[in-house]
Amino acid sequence: xxxxxxxxxxxxxxxxxxxxxxxxxxxxxxxxxxxxxxxxxxxxxxxxxxxxxxxxxxxxxxxxxxxxxxxxxxxxxxxxxxxxxxxxxxxxxxxxxxxxxxxxxxxxxxxxxxxxxxxxxxxxxxxxxxxxxxxxxxxxxxxxxxxxxxxxxxxxxxxxxxxxxxxxxxxxxxxxxxxxxxxxxxxxxxxxxxxxxxxxxxxxxxxxxxxxxxxxxxxxxxxxxxxxxxxxxxxxxxxxxxxxxxxxxxxxxxxxxxxxxxxxxxxxxxxxxxxxxxxxxxxxxxxxxxxxxxxxxxxxxxxxxxxxxxxxxxxxxxxxxx
Length: 322
Known about the structure:
Blueprint: H1 2-14, H2 23-31, E1 38-39, E2 42-43, H3 44-73, E3 96-99, E4 111-114, H4 119-137, E5 149-150, E6 163-164, E7 188-193, H5 216-228, E8 235-242, H6 245-250, E9 254-257, E10 261-263, E11 279-284, E12 293-300, E13 314-321
Parallel strand pairs: 4-13, 5-6
Antiparallel strand pairs: 1-2, 3-7, 7-11, 8-10, 8-12, 9-11, 12-13
């Protein structure tokens, strides 16, 4: 009897029509209900429990992330990459780059195009070279540069922790004071080999065992070097030529400064403080004007492979001088 009455009371309470309040009053009661002492629908004790729970939860989570990060960082060296050469995404085949690059608003282009008689026009390119070569001209502009420079030479490699100097005076006539020869419609293009930590070049230093695909003028140069300066054969050689028969006719004579390649004493790259990549200045002495010339430059070592489609071991750009 009593149980039945209790059930009726519960049902009566459950199905009782809620008290009608205006929308404004409902919002006010949600923000603060003085009768139940609730804020946003919860009592102060309830909010305190929720605050304590989330404070502890996120505190433990942050501590766990910090511990995992600390353990992870113990396995890394700030100067030595964990994955190197074959194990890395970069791999073991360095790419070749060129400077100056076209302006950022035309970043996909590889065309160097200017008027040699218009200073304002060719200054776009010479200013880009000035910016690129600034670390080479101002040793203190990069960390450690100027404090651990060593005057390297063939047979005189740098001691551990020191880096080889790059002599900018050896690039003449491809120097800032001469506008890199752009004003004479005979521009200089700078080549650099991309850095791969720990990569050691295998040189073509045997003039009797050169690859068949190597340009004849480079083979002749290596043969002459083997006779006159055999101690300089440990070099990553460089060749630049027209990509197609018409380009070969229009490109004109080419000279390389300070030498035709990257000296072996700059390698391996070990991320030493103040290290700067060696550069080769390619001087196009008399390119035909008013026509686009497709140029392909390659780096030559036994462990540098070439693929024109993927631009592996080589670089392509176009040259046009009005």
